[in-house]
Design goal:
By secondary structure, the chain is an alpha/beta fold. The protein has ten helices and twelve strands. Helices cover about 40% and strands about 15% of the residues. A six-stranded parallel sheet has the order 2-1-3-4-5-10, sandwiched between helices. Strands 6-9 form a two-stranded parallel sheet. Helix 5 links the parallel strand 4 and strand 5. The chain is globular, with a radius of gyration of 19 Å. The N and C termini lie far apart (about 45 Å). The chain binds NADPH dihydro-nicotinamide-adenine-dinucleotide phosphate and the ligand C[C@H]1O[C@H](OP(=O)(O)OP(=O)(O)OC[C@H]2O[C@@H](n3cnc4c(=O)[nH]c(N)nc43)[C@H](O)[C@@H]2O)[C@@H](O)[C@@H](O)C1=O. The site of ligand F7E has 23 residues, from helix 3, helix 6 and strand 7.
C-alpha cells in the first residue's frame, strides 16, 4: 500500500529546473502541502556529507530526483566527464542517503537514452542493456543506467518503494534556451524567433533533419511524477512519453509555422544526428493509469508564449571543463 499522504514531506531535488519546477506546481495543485527544495548553491548534491546532513535534518518521506547535469546532443558529446561523474555523484548521494535514512519513497528520473542505439522500436523497458549505446550520450546514459540499477537493487534486496521513470525528450516552461547546451526544441524556438526578428534571415539547424524524436510537454511529465507519488507502482522501471514521434525536419517546419518565420533552413552536416530514433513504448505506465494530455502543436505554442514572456531574462547554462 502507498504510505504517502498530502501532508507527507516531499523533497524535490532540482526544484528550480524545468522538470523540478513543474513537479512542484503539479504536487501543489494536487494538494501536497509540505514541499521542500534547495538550490545548487544552497546544497551541492555532489557533496555526500552535505546531502546526508540535509536529509537527516529534514526527514522527508519522499525524494524526487530531478537534479542532474542536463543538456542537448552537443553538450553531452563535449563534456562526457561532467555528464558521467556529476550525475553519478548527485544520484548516488541521494539514493544511498535515502536508503540509509529510510526515506519511504524515492523517484529517480532517467532518460530514454539509456536504451541501446539500435534497439527495436518502440523501446520497451526490457530492452535495457541488450546492445550498445548511442556514442553522443553514452556517458550520461551510463550514469542514468546506474541510477536505475541502484533503485532496482534496493527494491529487490530491501523491498522499498524506489522507482525509476524514463522520460522521453521533454520541453516546456523554464527550459534551457542556451544555443550551445540546449535540446533541439528550445533551440529551434529561439533560432526561428531571432531570425524572424532580424528580417527572416536563414536558420541553421544541426545534422540532417532525418532523426526521429518523441516530445513530451513538461507538465505531462510532472503528472507522471504525481502519479508515482500517489501510487505504489508494482515495477521498478517505467517509460514516460507520448508514444508518437516526428522527424527533426517536421519539428522544424512546425516551429517555423508557429513563429511565422519565412526564411530558409540550412542543415549543418558537421553537427551530429545522434540516435536515428528513440520512440518509447509507454504501454506500461498507461496501463497503470497515467496518460499524456498536451499534443505537440499545443505544447509548442505554450512554450513559445512562455519564451516570449521570459526571453529577456532566460537562464544561460554554462558548462566548464
Ligand atoms: N530536459 C529533457 O529533455 C529531459 C530531462 N530528463 C531528466 O529530467 C531531470 C530534470 O531535467 P531538467 O529539468 O530538464 O534539467 P534542468 O537543467 O532544467 O534542471 C536541473 C536541476 O538540477 C539541479 N542541479 C544540477 N546540478 C546540481 C548540483 N550539483 N547540486 C544541486 N542541484 C543541482 C539544478 O539546480 P539549480 O537550478 O539550483 O542550479 C537544476 O534545478 C534530469 O534527471 C534529466 O536527466 C530526462 C529526459 C529528457
Ligand atoms: C533528451 C536527450 O537529449 C539528448 O539527445 P538528443 O535527443 O539527440 O538531443 P537534442 O535534443 O540536442 O537533439 C535532437 C536532434 O535535433 C538535432 N538538432 C537540429 N538542430 C538542433 C539545434 O539547434 N540544437 C540541438 N540541440 N539539436 C538540434 C540534433 O542534431 C539531433 O539530431 C541526449 O544527449 C540526452 O541528453 C537525452 O537524454
Amino acid at each position: 500500500m502507498n504510505s504517502i499522504h498530502k501532508q507527507s514531506k516531499i523533497y524535490i531535488a532540482g526544484h528550480r529546473g524545468m522538470v523540478g519546477s513543474a513537479v512542484w506546481r503539479a504536487l501543489e495543485a494536487d494538494g501536497y502541502t509540505n514541499l521542500i527544495g534547495k538550490t545548487s548553491s544552497e546544497l551541492d548534491l555532489r557533496n555526500q556529507d552535505a546531502v546526508s546532513e540535509f536529509i537527516a535534518s529534514e526527514h522527508p518521506n519522499v525524494i524526487i530526483d530531478a537534479a542532474a547535469r542536463v543538456g542537448g546532443i552537443l553538450a553531452n558529446s563535449e563534456f562526457p566527464y561532467q555528464f558521467l561523474m556529476e550525475n553519478l555523484q548527485i544520484q548516488n548521494n541521494l539514493i544511498d542517503t535515502a536508503h540509509k535514512q529510510n526515506v519511504e519513497k524515492f523517484i529517480f528520473l532517467g532518460s530514454s537514452c539509456i536504451y541501446p542505439k539500435l534497439a527495436p522500436q518502440p523501446l520497451k523497458e526490457d530492452c535495457l542493456l541488450t546492445d550498445s549505446l548511442e556514442p553522443t550520450n553514452e556517458w550520461y546514459a551510463i550514469a542514468k543506467i546506474t541510477g536505475v540499477k541502484a533503485c532496482e537493487a534496493i527494491r529487490k534486496q530491501y523491498n522499498k518503494d524506489f522507482v525509476s521513470l524514463m522520460p522521453t525528450n521533454l520541453y516546456g516552461s523554464f527550459d534551457n534556451f542556451d544555443l550551445n547546451t540546449s535540446h533541439v526544441l528550445p533551440a529551434m524556438l529561439r533560432k526561428f524567433h531571432e531570425a524572424k526578428e532580424n528580417g527572416n534571415t536563414p536558420v541553421t539547424l544541426w545534422g540532417s533533419g532525418t532523426p526521429m524524436r518523441e516530445f513530451l510537454y513538461v507538465d505531462d511529465m510532472a503528472q507522471a511524477v504525481v502519479f508515482a507519488v500517489n501510487n505504489k507502482l508494482p515495477e521498478h522501471l517505467y517509460n514516460v512519453g507520448t508514444g508518437t514521434d516526428v522527424t527533426i525536419k517536421e519539428l522544424a517546419e512546425t516551429i517555423q509555422n508557429v513563429i511565422g518565420h519565412q526564411g530558409d533552413i540550412i542543415w549543418d552536416s558537421e553537427k551530429p544526428d545522434g540516435t536515428p530514433r528513440k520512440l518509447m513504448d509507454v504501454s506500461k505506465l498507461k496501463g497503470a493509469g497515467w496518460k499524456y494530455e498536451i499534443e505537440l502543436l499545443q505544447g509548442i505554442k505554450k512554450t513559445y508564449a512562455w519564451f516570449l514572456e521570459h526571453h529577456a531574462s532566460l537562464k544561460q547554462v554554462k558548462l566548464s571543463k
